[in-house]
Amino acid sequence: MNTPLPLLDPTPTGAADTLPLAEPVPRAGELERLGKRLRHQVGQAIADFGMIEDGDRVMVCLSGGKDSYTMLDVLLQLQKKAPVSFSITAVNLDQKQPDFPAHVLPGYLESIGVDYRILEQDTYSVVTRVVPEGKTMCSLCSRLRRGALYTFAAEHGFTKIALGHHRDDLVATFFLNLFFHAKVSGMPPKLLSDDGRHVVIRPLAYVAEADIGRYARLKDFPIIPCNLCGSQENLQRKQVQRMMADWERETPGRIETIARALGDIRPSQLSDPKLFDFLGLAPRPATAD
């Protein structure tokens, strides 16, 4: 029987060694403390949702953004201390965006000695041809990207597909579905794909985006910006993100509270008769003392 990877909180060793010798001590100390927190949170998510099991072949989807770099970095650290054996392969989909620096990811991945694959598929031309100017490109782009990655995972026998969505993404998706689709649903830390062939995991489910941003800066990851849709200010997700940022400024800790609430659902306190038997609800008969 496969054993889920339990909570991992390895003692940080050699964290400062990854920094230039001239780096000031406070920066090294911050990286060590932040790295320890991220390892703890990722390890906790892996344990809570049984994300990684003995013998798993994990395909880590690497976009070149801060989130996926951080996910790969932390998973590689946990892999060294894990009580179970699993492999990691970083996979990037080159979508043929104009001026995409195709050399950056191979150079970085080779420098850290991780197994990797670069897929090439011109989804950029498809999206820009099909989607009218000014309309949101994310839906089609995501669908095409997901199809390419799922196909590659199936062809090469990967047992888990790791995506870099973090705590704030999970909260934002909840509000997107609530405000724009009239449903209470979100982005689960672990899910089965619609065709039942792939298990998708989100190891950063407990990690705040702000912490990821700080970690990426301290580690000096070679960030590659998304030029396809990054400038679309009319996206519904960006509206929700601005709302969340305002909330966090006004009441620090509110996003963390909402994130915890997503893991504490009370069906009897909502209004879905498919989840709770309201028709059968009746007072209990009095009992004799």
UniProtKB/TrEMBL annotation:
<protein>
    <recommendedName>
        <fullName>tRNA-cytidine(32) 2-sulfurtransferase</fullName>
        <ecNumber>2.8.1.-</ecNumber>
    </recommendedName>
</protein>
<keyword id="KW-0694">RNA-binding</keyword>
<keyword id="KW-0067">ATP-binding</keyword>
<comment type="function">
    <text>Catalyzes the ATP-dependent 2-thiolation of cytidine in position 32 of tRNA, to form 2-thiocytidine (s(2)C32). The sulfur atoms are provided by the cysteine/cysteine desulfurase (IscS) system.</text>
</comment>
<feature type="domain" description="tRNA(Ile)-lysidine/2-thiocytidine synthase N-terminal">
    <location>
        <begin position="58"/>
        <end position="220"/>
    </location>
</feature>
<comment type="subunit">
    <text>Homodimer.</text>
</comment>
<dbReference type="InterPro" id="IPR035107">
    <property type="entry name" value="tRNA_thiolation_TtcA_Ctu1"/>
</dbReference>
<keyword id="KW-0479">Metal-binding</keyword>
<feature type="binding site">
    <location>
        <position position="141"/>
    </location>
    <ligand>
        <name>[4Fe-4S] cluster</name>
    </ligand>
</feature>
<comment type="similarity">
    <text>Belongs to the TtcA family.</text>
</comment>
<keyword id="KW-0820">tRNA-binding</keyword>
<keyword id="KW-0547">Nucleotide-binding</keyword>
<comment type="pathway">
    <text>tRNA modification.</text>
</comment>
<keyword id="KW-0460">Magnesium</keyword>
<keyword id="KW-0963">Cytoplasm</keyword>
<feature type="binding site">
    <location>
        <position position="138"/>
    </location>
    <ligand>
        <name>[4Fe-4S] cluster</name>
    </ligand>
</feature>
<dbReference type="Pfam" id="PF01171">
    <property type="entry name" value="ATP_bind_3"/>
</dbReference>
<dbReference type="InterPro" id="IPR011063">
    <property type="entry name" value="TilS/TtcA_N"/>
</dbReference>
<feature type="binding site">
    <location>
        <position position="229"/>
    </location>
    <ligand>
        <name>[4Fe-4S] cluster</name>
    </ligand>
</feature>
<keyword id="KW-0411">Iron-sulfur</keyword>
<dbReference type="InterPro" id="IPR014729">
    <property type="entry name" value="Rossmann-like_a/b/a_fold"/>
</dbReference>
<keyword id="KW-0004">4Fe-4S</keyword>
<keyword id="KW-0819">tRNA processing</keyword>
<keyword id="KW-0808">Transferase</keyword>
<keyword id="KW-0408">Iron</keyword>
<feature type="short sequence motif" description="PP-loop motif">
    <location>
        <begin position="63"/>
        <end position="68"/>
    </location>
</feature>
<dbReference type="InterPro" id="IPR012089">
    <property type="entry name" value="tRNA_Cyd_32_2_STrfase"/>
</dbReference>
<dbReference type="GO" id="GO:0016740">
    <property type="term" value="F:transferase activity"/>
</dbReference>
